[in-house]
Specification:
This protein has ten helices and three strands. Helix 3 packs across helix 5 and helix 4 runs antiparallel to helix 5. By secondary structure, the protein is mainly alpha-helical. Bound molecules: fe (ii) ion. Fe (ii) ion binds next to helix 3.
Length: about 260
């Protein structure tokens, strides 16, 4: 019996000691940090993203997901293009199937759709707006426009600086989710405007109608990973990647209409 009195506490002590040793083992295990190569592998390619069969295809991004750093994080661009944009496109293709709008261009769809049809309005707008937004950005871009557009900006806003201040203010003041635009109105004049949600100036309910030539997405999904609540920083960064060459082409096409 005496032996048992000694043996039981001894076993308990050994068990505690083993448990402490196990804990020590767990504490000293090192978790290797992902290498730069592994991190790069987490980012996919826009070429691999395909919309479901339907009237509208995804517009090609034209650059890789990491091409706009440091203005826009690769993770933001990948999520935006391969998730949000893809969803709008698939939903549009589904909603338009079998309707009189099915074989029209996206510009015609936007002009004709019923603003009370929320599914068509949100998804047709989401498809068009993002398709333009991707093209309005490019790596190693920014600066100022040249040629016809530069002259028109001076004529209609007084200076490029005035235009920049106005556009940034419009984008900052858009309450909640929406878009900021530079458009050519029906008289051929440049105007800065904004719209809520996925609306745009081509829709018949637009307060300031016209042809968009520059689009800025101010939904939180466009910048929250990078800038959190600091929308102004995102807008400033957007100006460092504006593809003015493409915006000039959009302007020339809009005034020829
Ligand atoms: Fe977006």
């Amino acid at each position: 019996m005496k032996k048992l009195y000694i043996l039981i506490p001894l076993l308990a002590f050994c068990s505690i000691l083993q448990s402490c040793n196990d804990k020590k083992l767990i504490e000293v295990v090192e978790v290797p940090l992902p290498t730069v190569t592994e991190q790069k592998m987490l980012i996919g390619s826009p070429e691999d993203v395909k919309a479901n069969e339907g009237s509208f295809l995804l517009d090609k991004l034209g650059y890789t997901y990491n091409a706009l750093t440091p203005a826009i994080l690769p993770e933001t661009l990948e999520m935006h293009y391969s998730k949000h944009y893809l969803t709008y496109t698939n939903n549009l293709n589904k909603a338009i199937l079998g309707t009189p709008l099915e074989n029209l261009t996206i510009e015609e769809v936007l002009a004709k759709l019923d603003p009370n049809d929320a599914i068509m309005r949100n998804n047709a707008g989401g498809f068009y707006n993002h398709s333009l937004y991707w093209k309005c950005m490019a790596p190693k871009a920014g600066g100022e426009p040249k040629s016809n557009l530069a002259e028109a900006i001076i004529k209609d806003f007084g200076s490029f600086g005035n235009f920049t201040t106005l556009f940034k203010s419009e984008a900052n003041q858009q309450f909640g989710s929406g878009w900021a635009w530079l458009i050519v109105d029906r008289y051929g004049k440049l105007q800065v405007t904004s719209t809520a949600n996925q609306d745009n100036p081509l829709m018949r309910n637009a307060l300031v109608p016209g042809t968009p030539i520059l689009a800025l997405d101010v939904w939180e999904h466009a910048y929250y990973l990078d800038y959190q609540y600091r929308r102004g920083n995102y807008i400033d960064a957007f100006f460092t990647v504006i593809n003015w060459k493409k915006v000039e082409e959009n302007y020339d096409a809009a005034i020829r209409k």
